[in-house]
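task queued by scheduler; priority normal; single chain, no ligands, no partner chains; default sampling; output format set to structure tokens
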Amino acid sequence: IQSEKKYYLQHQIYYKNLRVLGLEYPDLDYSKALPFLLMLPQSLELNYL
């Protein structure tokens, strides 16, 4: 799956974006979720030559 491959290759960015939300589930700040959420559509972008 292309998205999983991108998350694997960019795992440092993946975890950085998750940490921005917060460390504990009850304290998550979903207003800061956009960078994490944008990782999926960015991983699906088509690269044409």
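post-processing summary
- The two ends are 21 Å apart (CA to CA).
- Residues 2-43 form one domain.
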